[in-house]
Structure formats: C-alpha cells, structure tokens
Amino acid sequence: MTEKLVIIGNGMAPGRMLEHLLEKAPGRYSITIFNAEPRVNYDRIMLSPVLSGEKDYEEIIIHGDGWYIKNGITLYKGHKIVALDRTAKTVTSDHGVVEPYDRLVIATGSVPFIIPVPGNDLPGVLTYRDLDDVQAMLLAAQSRAKAVVIGGGLLGLEAAAGLSERGMDVTVLHVMPTLMERQLDPAAGYLLQRAVEQRGIKVMTKANTKAIVGNGRVEGVKLADGTVVPASLVVMAVGIRPNAVLAKDAGVTVNRGIVVDAGMRTSDPDIFALGECAEVGGQVYGLVAPLYEMARVASSHLAGDQSAAFVHNDTPTKLKVTGIELFSLGDFADGDDRQEIVLRDASAGVYKRLVLKDDRIIGTVLYGETADGAWFNDLKKKQTDISEMRDTLIFGQAYQGGAPLDPMAAVAALPDDAEICGCNGVCKGTITGAITSKGLTSLDDVRAHTKASASCGSCTGLVEQLMSLTLGDNYNPAAVQPMCGCTTLGHDDVRRLIKAKGLKTIPAVMQELEWKTSCGCAKCRPALNYYLVADWPDEYADDYQSRFINERVHANIQKDGTYSVVPRMWGGVTSSKELRAIADVVDRFEIPMVKVTGGQRIDMLGIRKEDLPAVWADLGKAGFVSGHAYAKGLRTVKTCVGSDWCRFGTQDSTGLGIRIEKFMWGSWTPAKVKMAVSGCPRNCAEATCKDVGVICVDSGFEIHFAGAAGLDIKGTEVLGLVKTEDEALEVIVALVQMYREQGRYLERIYKWAKRVGIAEIKRQIMDDAEKRSGYYERFVFSQKFAQVDPWTERASGKDKHEFRPMASVGFAEAAE
Amino acid sequence: MNWIAIGSITDIPQRGARCVATPQGKIAVFRTAEDQVFATEDHCPHKGGPLSQGIVHGAAVTCPLHNWVISLETGKALGADEGAVKTIPVRVEGERLFIALEALASKAA
After folding, report:
1. ipTM of the complex, rounded to two decimals
2. Is A640 annotated in some ligand binding site?
3. A557, B19: Cβ pair inside 8 Å?
4. Which residues of chain B have pLDDT under 50?
5. DSSP-assigned beta bridge partners for residue A146
6. Which of B47, B56, B83 sits opposite A70 (nearest CB)?
7. Which of A487, A519, A552 to substitute to test the interface with B, most B CBs within 10 Å?
8. Which domains does chain A have, with CATH numbers?
9. Which residue ranges run through the membrane (chain B) (predicted)?
C-alpha cells in the first residue's frame, strides 16, 4: 500500500525535493500537488531575464507537464488550499477538492510585503513575485512611460534594470542611505548606485514613501518630504514574508515562518515544511541554495533516512543585472575583534573588502571583479587560517604561492569540493567528473547534466574555465557558434560554401560539409532549405519535409493543434464582397474566433486541419490568396489612407503599399518581414518600427529599415530619401534581396543590419547603383518561381496527404 | 495482438508522418529517411503538441509547438527534457502497415 504524499505549493523547493525523492524512494508515495499558480514548476530566479527580454517563459520551465505525467504525479494547477484538517488528515482546495494525506509538505513560499501606505491598492501598483507580475510589468512597459520601483535591494534593482531595458523611465526609491545595505557595505553600495545610474535609472536614497497618489490609477509616489515622483507603474520590492497562514490556522507552530526542526518536520510529525515559508534554526531564507538544501533534507526524511539535517551556510549574493559584477558573503559589520583588508581601484571601478576574525575570513564584499568569490567562499567555509598569505590575500588566488597571474591557474587550484554553482550547489568535482565521464563538450551539455550555471548563470565563466581546463584544446568557446549540433560550421560559412561549391540539395550540403548526423535536425534543415531556396530559386526543389508545419500546410498551428488562416488583403484594403465571403466561410466551417491582426488583416482561428483545403477553396472563389501570415517571408504591408482621403496625406501611401505587396508577396526571407507605408510624418501606419517602412513627405519617400516591435523594440534607421514611387520600390526590393542573400536563418532585418553595419547597407543600396540593380534583378528572377499561391495549389489537391488522416481504425470494433 | 491494417508505407512521405484516427485519439505514424516506420500517440509529453506535424530527423521527431525532440524508438524525450510518449507497435509486411491496439482488442473481446 503506497502512502499518500500531498504537497501544497509547486515552487522550486518542492520541485527539487520531488526530484530527490523520486530518486531515493521511487514508488513509495502516491503524490498529489496543489499549485495556486496555474502553471508547472518554473525557475523563479530567471524572472529577471524574462523581464529584461533575455529569456522567455518556455526557457525557464523546470518540469513540464510531461514530467508530472511520467512520474505519476497528480498536479492541480490553479488550486489554492484553503483548509487543512489535521485530525481528519485532509486538505481542501478553493475548487472544493478534498485530498487525504499520510504525509503533508507545506511549501507555500512567501508573500511580497506591501507597504502600508494610502493608495497601495491603486491599479498600476504591482509586486515582483511571479510570472503574472512580470507579464503585468511587460504590459505596462509597452507604454514606455515612467516607473517607480520601491526598494533598492536585489529584487528591486533587477526589476528596475528589466523595466529600463524595456524602455521605461525608471526611478528607484530606497529608504536606506545606500543600495543593498544588507549585502553591501556603503562603499560598494555607492559604486553600485553609480553603475545603476549610468544605465539611465534614477536612484533616490533615504526616500521614505508616504503615499501612492492617483485618481483611479497610479499617478505618482509621494515621499515624506513632500516630493511627488510621477509614475504610471509602481513596483513594490521591499521584501517578502513567509506565507504561513494556512499552517497557523491549523494550529501548527508558527513564529516568523512555519517552525521546523533540522529534518524539516513541523510541530505535527506528519507535516513537513520547506522553502521560503519555513523557519529553521530561527532563520527564514529567500535565496535558492538553502532552499535546495531544505529540499534535500526533506526528501531524505520522506524516504526514511532520519539522519539528514539542515546546516546553515552563508550563501553568496550576486546581482543578476548584465554588466554589474557584485558578490557578497557573510558578515561584514565593523567590530573591535575584526580586521579588514580593502583594495580600491577607482579607475577600474573595483572594490574588494575582506573582513577577518582570528585570521579567518568571515565576510567578503567584491565589486567590479568577482572572479575570486568562489575561492574566498571556500576559505571561509573551511575556516582556513590565512595568516601565511595575508599580504597578498586580497589580490586573489592567482597571487598565492608565487603562481603566475592566470585565471585558469586559479580555477585549477580550487579543490574538488569547492562550490562553483551556488544556486544548485554544484561543486567543481561534480562538473569535471561529468565532463570526463559523459564526454561533454558544450556549455549546454554541462548545464543539462549537472545543472551548474543552469539557474542564474552568474557562474558561467567559471564553468567555462573548468571546461577548458578539463578538455584542453577540445574546448573552444571563442569559435563561431555552429548552426546546430549537426555541424561545426556557422551559418555564414554554410551560406558561403553552398555558393562556392555549388551545392543544390540538402543531402549534398550535408555530404560535402561533413554533417555529423544522417539527416540533420529541426534546427538546421529549415535553415538549409531556406538558403537553397534563396540561392538557387530556379533549380532547387523545395523540401517540404524540412519546413516547419506552418509553412508546410500554409496556416498557423495553434496550441490546441487547430490552425489559423489569414487571407491577403493588399495594403489592408478590403471590400464588402470580401467581407461577405469571409463571413460565409466562418459560418460554414463554424470557425470559433475571428480577429483583426496587428498587420491590418483578418485572422480566422480554430480551423480543423482537415477543413483547410475546403476553407481555401471557398476563400479562393472570392479572389483571396494566402496572406503568408505563417511564413518566414513577406508578411504584410500596412498602410494609412494617404492623400486620397487624409487632409494631411502627402502621397498615395495606400497605393504604394499595395504596389509593394503585390510585387513582393510570396518571397521567402530569413525571418518574417513586415512593412508599412505612412502618408505623412504623423506616421499612422507605424512605419518606423517595421522591418522596412516608408514615410511619405512632400519631396518624396523616406525609406526606413531595421525597426523592431516584438521581443525588442527599436525605431527604424533611415536608409535614404527618393523622389518617385518607382525609385522607392527599387530601393526596397534591393534592400530585401541583400538581406535574403546575407541574413542568417531566423535573423530579423534589424539584427542582420546591426551585424553588417547600417553604413555598409546604405553604401550598397543607396550609393552603388550597380549593386542595387543587381540585387533588384535577382529578386525579380526569384519571384518568377515564388509567386504561386499555395492555397490554390492545395485546394486543387496538392499535398492532400497533409490534411487527411491516413486511416480511421477501431471505431467499428468498438461499436460491436 | 490485434494487428489492424492502416495502409501502405507509400502513403507517408519520407521524413514525414500521417495520422490514424482511433477511438482512443490520434496516432502518429512516422516514416524515416531510411524507411523505418514508427507509431506513437500524437501527443507530445510536454504540452500535448501534435507530434505528427513535427520535423522528422533520424529516428526522432521535433514537436512543432516547443521543439522537444522525441525518440521514435523509445518515445522518450531526448536531450535534457524529461517525459515520454506512448509508442504503438507497428508491423511492416512488404509495403503494408499494421498497428496493434491492445486496449481495443480487449474491449472488443
């Protein structure tokens, strides 16, 4: 009979505990998890990179749905536990699920501290705790308005950096005289403030928030001295407190957090607590390393090993803001029995301070140069007597014992049990051992197998040094990033060799360029297919099996496996006849959602795959062709109404947009291409954040390019001014062809432009008439083969296998 | 085993897949570049993406929704991801393909 284990909360601590438990005692428990958030387990440490745009949510998932299924764990998402009955041994969720337990683990985490001031509940006041908060901040950031972050600690500064990165005007309010005063001494706090201010973030210290003001929503923050700092978004990041309400209501002993013994057991022997809600040895914790230690201890006890005990260890603090190096550890208050060693290098922005007691390190603050953090941590942990090396200690490990100044030597000298990755508690020996025994050669491999550098990433440099120590010449991080694991060549080399060697099929490329796999992977095959389509438009036979599903079935796959269909509406112009045809299709195929897109088109969502050819046949009868809304190719040309209707319009922007779209549709490009034409500088078609945009002016057409309004937000660059529509078209076509020939697959125009240089593109397209007409001619040639409506083809039977099941079986038998 | 005929290997493009509809849901039948044939439930262990719509490479498929790579031989996620899709036995006789639906057979019996 398996015992019933119920877990309340699905954060990183219980997630890690389950990993250990499934390894130590597989099958012992039947496990049920209640998660108040409607999600799987994700890496909360990485919310800051999600906020700043360096990662997206999918990349920070720790356990996907499949993991729970595979391990037979029942996960209730979006269920908050509202009652715990210790007599009946049951928990009850807000959706009414009552679950009995033999053992219960409470991992309810913490709640953000809300400053008790008037206005703290106004719309626009957020905390920084989970993905919902990040998404709300991202939404607010789109307005690029003013934000105030209250709290100059770790979380507050990361939120401020992220919001600033997203284009907001950010002010940090901190109640203490220096930033991060709990982790940094005043000198380092000052350096940090300077670095933060250099990023355009304003910092106000000794700023005591008195009220949040606004009429109906946030308009500003009022300080005790009467100053009002204007803001449309206020993020409170002043601290957290353990979320222990449920345990307290059930009569479990609670102090600051839920009180547990060194085995993570609460006052009720069948109930464990861990994570930020737990208080062990009088301390509550918020950094991941001690939480993971709790997870290890709790899993041992649940698996029947009663000897495991939680031991307090100081955890180094690091700030996850790209470009700011900061490390702090232990106790660095002044005291009569303490001595300190300080190193300052003002011009390099370096500050280091070691606090010593009885010839042993008890505290470390490093700013600007943190490479020796791991070594100092190790000396402190082992309580090493440093009197022998005291004179050179502050210079770091490389200077000890007369060793030459070589960062590699420093890493090499670390003992095997020195901790490299603080987040995941991975030591040097584990990493080098995995590299050797599993033959790992890339950073990604090491992350996958050891978890080192897989959380906050601040130890990545150390891990790379370990790899190069262990692998020697076989590790070359400076080399060109290969296209994928199937080759050592980068995109540019592959493109060059395809042309130089005249390679015209995917197998030929793989053979000649010595691919390491038999038929590539989902990363390289679509890239190669594009390069061959772009380079040999007349000779290459498009390989549909190397295209993503969207380009294979000419519609956009949705999360539920249905598709969405967007017909082309040239320049965003439609008619009653077209709208009627769309309405009829929607009714006939019971299409559940119709939506207007950002590119001035109509999107029909939720179409079953089998219906696609019939939908297209009906749309085709009304004159519609594919809108290529799924393609790495020309998407839309958005227009305003221009001189025909608008009293400000200077040129026929609608007409030009339609002309461009009719000329360029069907072309494949490295990544999607979105365009717009605005009839005057008021720019109603928003042309200045597009891949290519035109602003019509009295004297002609201003051609813009390299804008972005997605993952990144970037205004366009001006390519040049031309006088006529014909010239505008030639310039745009030449520009896109240059991009088609040079872009790396999935690289948008703005990234390509940054790589090759705006000036170089201007020179080739605007100043070199011969080059320009060469590009133009090659594009025109390629269009002869590309401008075929894929919907008409499929409505008349092409690739019909794509849309029909191969067989239907079992239904008759089941009916018997 | 209850072997059920589902068609010919030539119905499936090389490095491609087709679906078979069954009362228990869709089954994806894959054909590799070397003409090996595999079948799995058409449901990625990550977020349920339709594996039949993915790119087939070697004896693996990449899910179209979030790029998990699933081994067609074992059904297990490759690389660092964890999870597995149920594999379905396939028999190839010349060009004809059969799959076994055990649960169905027992229900019918």
Report:
1. 0.87
2. yes
3. no
4. 104-109
5. A169
6. B83
7. A519
8. 3-109+242-302 (3.50.50.60), 125-238 (3.50.50.60), 491-547 (no CATH), 550-630 (3.90.480.10), 634-786 (3.30.413.10)
9. none
